[in-house]
Design brief:
- The protein is of the alpha+beta class and about 900 residues long.
- It folds into 5 domains: about 180 residues, Beta-Lactamase, CATH 3.30.450; about 80 residues, PAS domain (Beta-Lactamase, 2-Layer Sandwich); about 100 residues, Beta-Lactamase (2-Layer Sandwich), CATH 3.30.450.20; about 160 residues, Reverse transcriptase/Diguanylate cyclase domain (Alpha-Beta Plaits, 2-Layer Sandwich), CATH 3.30.70.270; about 250 residues, EAL domain (TIM Barrel, Alpha-Beta Barrel), CATH 3.20.20.
- Helices cover about 45% and strands about 25% of the residues.
- The protein is built from 29 helices and 32 strands.
- The strands form 6 sheets. Strands 24-25-27-28-29-30-31-32 form an 8-stranded mixed β-barrel, surrounded by 4 helices. Strands 1, 2, 3, 4, 5 and 6 form a 6-stranded antiparallel β-sheet that branches. A 5-stranded antiparallel β-sheet has the order 8-7-11-10-9.
- Helix 2 runs antiparallel to helix 3, helix 2 runs antiparallel to helix 8 and helix 19 crosses helix 20.
- The longest helix has about 70 residues.
- The radius of gyration is 48 Å and the shape is flat.
């Protein structure tokens, strides 16, 4: 029994010796010392950061207060000078406001003067308008000085919103005293942000704030500004106590943001102000968090090192060396597993790669080890790139740039390659590590952006930007080769009608098909582009002469004119094409496009579905049109227009029963301008709408006079342009409203429209004509026979008159066929109960033929040309 007891004691003693061996005791002491030291350092670092923050914010607050105090003193001196200037006179006072701004050059301010009744009588920003009363008698600063019994004191107000400026400001004021009695207040208003602007020098850091607070707790200013902060009162702050030291620091939670901060303050008791600077505790302790991680990392690293040393003592030196080398390689290769990495020797031989490399290139680690790193060099790399890479590694040990990587299967991908050299250390040789970042998606995104910037999204044709680039390139090439360059400007005719009728989706389909047809009609060397909407261009290099361009234009017109199937319907669309050539027509891209555009418009004006080559006469016509447009804008206001009236004669009786009102323009410099030269321009510019209203008003006034003079049955005809139908049909400026206001008698007014406008008008325009007829206004169809009106339109609108075009009247004496055609028109009109007016009657024989054919009325130079109102009256008197 005693032997067993001795044996047990021996085992326990042996175990104790193992546990408390010198190695274990040293390791335990090392652990205790390491963690105790880390804890001690953390506590000291936290306290140091808070002390430094308190010292820093207190110093900033003192500087803030000192600077602001000097600003207040300068404002006080400024107020005294302003008051003296005001007492001398307002003119000198205004000059002083401008001259003395240098006293407070760092403050944006407003100067105001309030009289003894509280009314604003001067403001440097927005003086009150004549008769305007701005009452400021309820303002704190006014009441203070009013009740101060004549004491001359500087007063600093709480933030107020100005009744004139409508902005928040702090009022610095002094009373105006005359003979020691209160006579008003001089005010300098400074924005809270500007007053506290000095604090911007140290509130730029995140989490720092600065405030100016009165002894009452009212916040005067805060940086950065916080919504609602100027309307708040603060309390329970050490600087608000009467016995508080001049400066100090404290910690508190901001009530407006619920953020704990370290605050420093500085008191300026002579002005009752406190200047406070605070920094977020979280941001103050941000370095502490980093330090704590470093400290704990150090402690953990020390612990791990202890474990490593502890373990290393039981291993051989060879095993320890191998283990450390593996750990080093693992640390290098796998430090960033998201990117492909390669470890090479200094001569470029691959030592190891990470799994991401195998995924990116298809090479397994076993396949690539031992091979030269330059086997990854792709064929897309520029010549000399590898040599520049080697030279940079040799000189600096590093290189970075874009590099094409060749994969195992022979494919390549673009990458951003970064190569660095790791220096020699005790456990291994120098190595180079290459980081490979695949930029395939980046390149694809750049290509998409480039394509979108240069190609039209709908048709995939070059857009305006790429078109101009290519046109300038072709012009430069043509300068060198002396070859002619052609440019076609293509505009689809009546494309808007397709959009409005079938919808924008079908309009897009039409544009796609038109683009395909245009591209199929040109040469491989030509460039087709879409500028905008239904406008296309074709660049034609080396066309030889304009004839080649004309042939291509003819082919395009033919292709575009072929029917389109849209929404189950066959739609026909034509095009107008303008042709310009370099260098004959223009010597730069912009001018060439403009001239081709001019030619296109000329083709459209000639009837569409045609091409036209640019000439200087087209340019001159365009300039003339522009000049007429500019002059038209002032002609109406300058009373340059006048109305002439051409009689319309009853062919059976010879009596003048109607008159057509025709506008005339007497230009002050150019003299009379024919209507044919300006009516179309007025329609294009939209000025015809205002001109038409003027014509209607003048004609209606003349109608009232002539119905009183010539009889109640007398009529005046007024022309209405198709463009005028696009103006609002209702409203005070509409024709319907004007006719209603002027109480035009039923049957007294005739509105003349053209066949073209009848066919092109919308349903709204047709409704306008119906409303005119309902109001007793008759409708005449002008230039009948030159257009394409159908009988259905004549019956639907119940046309009152048709006017046979002068071209038919002019041909009456040429043969029986023309007379028969005229008779047919008159018979058809009478069958539809429509009266007929023949225009352009110039001879007696024409009149006799019309009388024999049964025509109702005649109009033309045979009877009387268009004349002024007085001459018209004289003519009527002569024939009556």
């Amino acid at each position: 029994m005693p032997e067993r007891s001795t044996s047990l004691n021996g085992k326990a003693l042996h175990r104790l010796r193992q546990i408390f061996s010198p190695l274990n005791l040293a390791a335990a002491a090392w652990l205790i010392a390491t963690w105790a030291f880390a804890t001690f350092q953390l506590v000291n670092e936290r306290d140091r950061l808070l002390r430094d923050a308190a010292t820093r914010t207190q110093a900033e607050a003192v500087a803030f207060g000192a600077y602001s105090k000097s600003s207040i003193l300068r404002l006080s001196e400024f107020l005294l000078a302003l008051r003296a200037g005001w007492l001398v006179g307002e003119t000198g006072f205004v000059n002083m406001v401008r001259e003395r701004q240098n006293l407070v050059v760092d403050l944006s301010f407003q100067v105001a003067v309030i009289d003894k009744h509280g009314l604003l009588i001067y403001s440097s920003i927005a003086p009150p308008a004549a008769g305007e009363r701005v009452d400021l008698s309820d303002r704190e600063h006014f009441r203070f000085h009013q009740n101060a019994a004549g004491r001359d004191m500087l007063f600093i107000s709480d933030p107020v919103k100005g009744k004139v400026s409508r902005k928040w400001s702090i009022q610095f004021t002094r009373p105006i005293l005359r003979d020691g009695r209160f006579d008003g207040v001089i005010v300098v208003s400074v924005s809270p942000e500007q007053f506290a602007s000095f604090a911007q020098t140290f509130t730029n850091r995140d989490g720092e704030v600065a405030s100016v607070i009165k002894n009452s707790g009212q916040v005067l200013a805060r940086l950065p500004a916080l919504e609602g902060s100027l309307a708040k009162l603060v309390s329970n702050r050490p600087y608000l106590a009467s016995n508080a030291p001049p400066s100090g620091s404290y910690r508190a939670v901001s009530g407006s943001e619920n953020v704990e901060r370290v605050f420093g303050y500085s008191r300026v008791p002579e002005f009752g102000l406190n200047f406070v600077v605070g920094q977020s505790v979280d941001l103050v302790l941000a370095p502490y968090k980093v330090y704590s991680r470093v400290a704990f990392a150090g402690a953990i690293a020390s612990t791990l090192l202890l474990g490593l040393l502890y373990y290393s003592l039981r291993r051989s030196m060879a095993e320890r060396q191998r283990h450390l080398e593996e750990m080093r390689l693992a640390s290098i290769v796998y430090s960033s597993s998201s990117e492909a990495m390669v470890v090479t020797s200094l001569d470029g031989t691959i030592i190891d790669v990470n799994p991401a490399f195998a995924t990116a290139t298809g090479y397994a680690a076993e396949e690539i080890r031992g091979r030269p790193g330059y086997c990854l060099n792709g064929t897309a790399n520029a010549a000399g790139l590898v040599e520049r890479l080697r030279a940079s590694l040799k000189a600096k040990g590093s290189w970075s740039g874009e590099f094409s990587i060749r994969c195992k299967d022979g494919s390549e991908f673009p990458a951003y390659l970064t190569v660095d050299t790791y220096l020699h250390h005790a456990y291994g040789e120098r190595r180079r590590v290459a980081l490979i970042h695949d930029i395939t998606e980046k390149r694809q995104a750049e290509e998409v952006i480039r394509h979108q910037a240069n190609f039209d999204a709908l048709t995939d044709l070059p857009n305006r930007r790429l078109f101009f680039g290519r046109l300038e390139q072709e012009i430069e090439r043509s300068r060198g080769t002396q070859h002619v360059l052609g440019l076609l400007f293509i505009d689809l005719d009546r494309f808007k009608e397709v959009n409005d009728t079938l919808g924008h989706d079908q309009g897009d389909q039409l544009l796609l098909e038109a683009a395909r047809r245009i591209a199929g009609s040109v040469r491989a060397s030509d460039t087709v582009a879409r500028l905008a909407g239904d406008e296309f261009t074709v660049i034609l290099p080396e066309v030889g002469d304009a004839g080649v361009a004309a042939n291509i234009a003819e082919a395009i017109l033919k292709q575009i004119a072929a029917p389109y199937r849209l929404a189950g319907e066959l739609v026909e669309v034509s095009a107008s094409i303008g042709v310009a050539t370099f260098p004959k027509d223009a010597d730069n891209a912009e001018a060439l496009l403009v001239y081709a555009d001019h030619a296109m418009f000329a083709a459209k004006e000639e009837g569409r579905n045609r091409w036209k080559v640019f000439t200087q006469s087209l340019l001159q016509a365009e300039r003339e049109r522009l000049r007429i447009t500019q002059d038209l804008r002032t002609a109406l206001a300058s009373n340059q227009f006048a109305l002439h009236y051409q009689p319309i004669v009853d062919l059976r009786t010879g009596k003048v029963c109607k008159a057509e009102a025709l506008i005339r323009w007497n230009h002050p410099l150019r003299g009379p301008i024919p209507p044919a030269d300006f009516i179309a321009v007025a329609e294009e510019s939209g000025l015809i709408i205002d001109i038409g209203r003027w014509v209607l008003a003048e004609a209606v006034d003349q109608l009232a006079r002539w119905q009183a003079l010539l009889g109640k049955d007398f009529q005046i005809s007024v022309n209405k342009s198709p463009i005028e139908f696009r103006a609002p049909a209702s409203g005070p400026e509409s024709w319907s409203s004007m006719i209603e206001r002027r109480r035009v008698p039923v049957g007294g007014l005739v509105i003349e429209i053209t066949e073209g406008s009848l066919m092109e008008q919308s349903i709204d325009a047709m409704d306008q004509l119906s409303r005119f007829q309902a109001a007793g206004i008759e409708i005449a169809l002008d230039d009948f026979g030159t257009g394409y009106s159908s009988l259905s339109y004549l019956r639907r609108l119940d046309i009152d008159y048709i006017k046979i075009d002068r071209s038919f009247i002019r041909s009456l004496t040429r043969g029986p066929d023309d007379v028969a055609l005229c008779r047919a028109i008159i018979s058809m009109a009478h069958a539809l109960r429509i009266r007929v007016i023949a225009e352009g009657v110039e001879t007696e024989s024409q009149r006799d033929i019309l009388v024999a054919a049964g025509c109702d009325y005649g109009q033309g130079y045979f009877f009387c040309p268009p004349v002024e109102a007085s001459a018209f009256e004289a003519f009527v008197s002569a024939v009556t």
